[in-house]
Amino acid sequence: MAHGYQHVFLTGPPGIGKTTIIEKVCKELRLKSISMKGFFTAELREDGKRVGFDIISLDGNRCPLARIGIDSEGTGPKVGQYVVKSFESVALPILQTEMSHVTVLDEVGKMELFSQRFELAVKNVFATNTSILGTIPLQKGRPIPLVEFIRTHPSVKLFTVDYKNRDSVPYEIVNLLASAGESHGKP
User: Fold this and answer.
1) CA 151 to CA 10: how far, in whole Å?
2) Rounded to whole angstroms, how far apart are CA atoms 153 and 185?
3) Strands 49-57 and 102-105: what pairing?
4) Quick count: other Cβ atoms within 10 Å of Cβ 80?
5) Given the DSSP bridges, would you call strands 49-57 and 62-68 parallel, antiparallel or unpaired?
6) Rounded to whole angstroms, how far apart are CA atoms 69 and 57?
7) For residues 17 and 169, is the Cβ–Cβ distance under 8 A?
8) Can you give the residue ranges of the AAA+ ATPase domain (predicted)?
9) Is the CB of residue 22 less than 8 Å from the CB of residue 104?
10) How far is Cα of residue 114 from the mean position of the Cα atoms in its chain?
11) Residue 36 forms beta bridges with which residues?
12) Average pLDDT, the chain
């Protein structure tokens, strides 16, 4: 990739548009016939209030990631007010399937880090020629090891999204990822 970057990650405050940027980039990459795999996280709302998150694979497979409230089975860890459900059944197969040009990871954060297998799978993708397009939370509080690994990795171009740049960032990312495919001889 130009400037030595193979991977692109976004950070910024909640609600700034990181997932929207990822969706725009994916749409443009599809138009360029660039192969992708990965997942998005989507807010789940009831009566205008956020009650949880789902994980949605790029091929449309959807499962619960986290919900507000009590875990009826008593097995899910909690992050703040959210009980984290198992998302390994969707996320791990995506990361372990055949290589693609781009792997989408929206988002790598606290809830995902209750899975050591997920953390290992993400690090394994870093060891391949696949480019990663993802999001990480802003740095605050106690560092999350995988997030810090990503934030400080020399092959990661990190964009901090704000209201001024969120309309131009998708085009920069498409150009970076498209040129990465050419420099690595990917489809």
Assistant:
1) 10
2) 22
3) unpaired
4) 8
5) antiparallel
6) 25
7) no
8) 4-162
9) yes
10) 15
11) 102
12) 83
Domains and CATH numbers, the chain: 7-40+89-183 (3.40.50.300)
Crossing angle between the packed helical segments 18-31 and 169-184, to the nearest 10 degrees: 50
Query: How far, CA to CA in Å, does 19 sit from each of 94, 95, 121, 127, 171?
Result: 18, 19, 21, 25, 15
For residues 53 and 42, the answer to whether their CB atoms sit within 8 Å is: yes
Identify whether the C-beta of residue 176 lies closer than 8 Å to the C-beta of residue 8: yes
Specify the range with the lowest mean pLDDT, choosing from 72-76, 152-156, 176-180. 72-76
Cis peptide before 148 (omega within 30 of 0): no
* Per-residue pLDDT at 88 exceeds 90: no
C-alpha to C-alpha distance for 150 and 87, rounded to whole angstroms: 21
Cα gap 149→144, rounded to integer Å:
9
169, pLDDT greater than 60? yes
pLDDT digits (tens, 9 = 90+) for 17-44: 999 999 999 999 999 999 999 998 888 8
DSSP annotation of 111: T
Asked if residue 38 lies in contact with residue 94, where contact means CB atoms within 8 angstroms, the answer is yes
